[in-house]
């Protein structure tokens, strides 16, 4: 969503003078969401602008949290410091990234935070001038959700007459098992109200073909989604 009147609410943890909106990518559990934040305009002594920001974004990757920022121009810039917070208020320095100091061309920088812990990860970049003055970018938030602890397996696949569903940890009750056609038609539904490490699903009345086996909790949150072939 766009912030009204080019002003970002303080609850987003964004401070500074606005130079326009920049896109921040939030990736978690394979899902992608996009928000817009302000990037502050750094004003140095005498009205000199040491850094003109273009973008600052963060992506969740299999290797960790990837941060990327780009500047349009730099003047008397010493370096950048990558800072991280788990609560959005107390930050610690992760790394120092050197810069050319003076540049009239686009400069792109990257830092990989090799972390896999679930939770909120707040990042900001501290821009430090050669005279010791410094400013901050806006804040990028990357959310990593807890992985589903309900390890679910189905067998056999392909299946005939009956498919067995095994649970390492039984999902919260009640939950629903469905067989869904590729067109989205729900052809079979079974509601489970008693805990068990295995459920048997009778598929003998289903025509042969490809289906999707869905398992969802009572709030319709998907716990499992997998292709299955009925023979």
Apparent shape: elongated
What Rg do the Cα atoms give? 25 Å
Which residues form runs of ≥5 with pLDDT under 50? 1-46
Number of helices: 0
**Beta-strand share of residues:** over 45%
Helical amount among residues, as a percent range? Answer: under 10%
Topology pattern, helix = H, strand = E = EEEEEEEEEEEEEEEEE
Strand count, sense and barrel status of the largest sheet are: 5 strands, antiparallel
Give the number of DSSP strands. 17
Straight-line N-to-C gap: 47 Å
Look at the helices and sheets and give the structural class. mainly beta
Q: If you average the pLDDT, what whole number results?
A: 77
Annotate the secondary structure layout.
Blueprint: E1 18-28, E2 31-40, E3 51-61, E4 64-74, E5 77-85, E6 92-98, E7 107-113, E8 119-129, E9 134-136, E10 140-144, E11 152-160, E12 162-167, E13 175-180, E14 186-192, E15 198-202, E16 209-217, E17 222-230
Antiparallel strand pairs: 1-2, 3-4, 4-7, 5-6, 5-8, 8-9, 8-10, 11-12, 12-15, 13-14, 13-16, 16-17
Give a description of the structure.
The chain is mainly β. Helix content is about 0%, strand content about 60%. The protein has no helices and 17 strands. It has strands at about 20-30, 30-40, 50-60, 65-75, 75-85, 90-100, 105-115, 120-130, 135, 140-145, 150-160, 160-165, 175-180, 185-190, 200, 210-215, 220-230. The strands form five sheets. Strands 5, 6, 8, 9 and 10 form a five-stranded antiparallel sheet that branches. A four-stranded antiparallel sheet has the order 14-13-16-17, with no helix packed on it. β11 (about 150-160) and β12 (about 160-165) form a beta hairpin. The radius of gyration is 25 Å and the shape is elongated.
């Amino acid at each position: 969503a766009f912030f009204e009147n080019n002003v970002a609410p303080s609850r987003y943890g964004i401070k500074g003078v606005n130079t326009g909106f920049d896109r921040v990518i939030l990736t978690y559990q394979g899902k992608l969401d996009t928000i817009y934040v302000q990037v502050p305009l750094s004003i140095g002594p005498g009205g000199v602008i040491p850094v003109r920001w273009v973008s600052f974004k963060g992506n969740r990757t299999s290797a960790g949290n990837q941060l990327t920022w780009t500047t349009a121009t730099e003047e008397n810039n010493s370096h950048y410091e990558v800072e991280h917070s788990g609560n959005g208020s107390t930050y610690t320095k992760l790394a120092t990234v050197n810069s050319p100091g003076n540049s009239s061309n686009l400069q792109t920088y990257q830092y990989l935070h090799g972390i896999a812990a679930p939770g909120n990860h707040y990042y900001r970049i501290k821009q430090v001038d050669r005279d010791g003055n410094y400013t901050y970018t806006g804040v990028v938030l990357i959310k990593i959700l807890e992985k589903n602890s309900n390890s679910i397996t189905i067998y056999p696949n392909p299946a005939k007459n009956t498919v067995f569903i095994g649970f390492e940890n039984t999902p919260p009750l009640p939950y629903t098992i469905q067989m869904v056609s590729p067109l989205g038609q729900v052809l079979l539904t079974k509601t489970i109200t008693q805990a068990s490490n295995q459920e048997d699903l009778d598929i003998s009345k289903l025509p042969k073909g490809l289906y999707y086996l869905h398992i969802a909790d009572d709030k319709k949150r998907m716990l499992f989604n997998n292709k299955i072939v009925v023979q």
